[in-house]
């Protein structure tokens, strides 16, 4: 059985007769190195601290002892942070033996089951679990109770430019905005990001912007060139008509035409009358 299955299928703490809860010094407890969550909601931590102050800690944290004789959190970092706010010197904990790989996988799974990671944190957790547990995408999805398309869409977010990923993490744009940008290369994504944020573009407007970036409006340019070409022909024809009319009325002159790719020239030569006769 994989560490994934051991965690998911394990019995609640209250139902396991072999588990012993111990009081551990808060100063000897450290966060999990593989914690996927980078942003903790301070308001929620404060609310949790108030709840613990009023009702006590209803569920102990789970830790493992590392090589430095410290206790690394496997599950319960939010509870640990709330306890720190209360300035408690000790915290109820369950000590278990896990390898580094097991510790990392469990930290990821515990956070994924809470379902309050931001989209980028969630995507990174999926990617790490795939690698650690050597799972195919469909198997990972099944174990998490998600559809394969859901997991696939999250993992695709990791192909975005770092700046775009950060914007999603910060809530400046949504993951749907991010998916729209996936059709562009990294430089194009970075170039459009400020415009999307500053103008507060909708997902539809972002999709339209991406489409314009991928397919510039060639048709309009073609029309402009065609119009210019037609105007040139019109001008030349008008000149020819004017020359014919002048010749018909007895005007004496010669003319020469020079037609190149860049321009059309008509040189008209009129001889002056002899003023000394």
Automatic annotation (TrEMBL):
Annotated keywords: DNA-binding
GO biological process: chromosome segregation; positive regulation of sporulation resulting in formation of a cellular spore
Molecular function per GO: DNA binding
Start and end residues of each ParB-like N-terminal domain: 22-112
Entry's localization field: Cytoplasm, Nucleoid
Gene Ontology cellular-component terms listed: chromosome; nucleoid
SUPFAM superfamilies: KorB DNA-binding domain-like, ParB/Sulfiredoxin
InterPro entries: Chromosome_partition/occlusion (IPR050336), HTH_ParB/Spo0J (IPR041468), ParB/RepB/Spo0J (IPR004437), ParB/Sulfiredoxin_sf (IPR036086), ParB_N (IPR003115)
SMART domains (alphabetical): ParB (SM00470)
Pfam family, one: HTH_ParB
Family: Belongs to the ParB family.
NCBIfam families xrefs: parB_part
The protein's name in its UniProt record: Nucleoid occlusion protein
Species this protein is from: Bombilactobacillus bombi
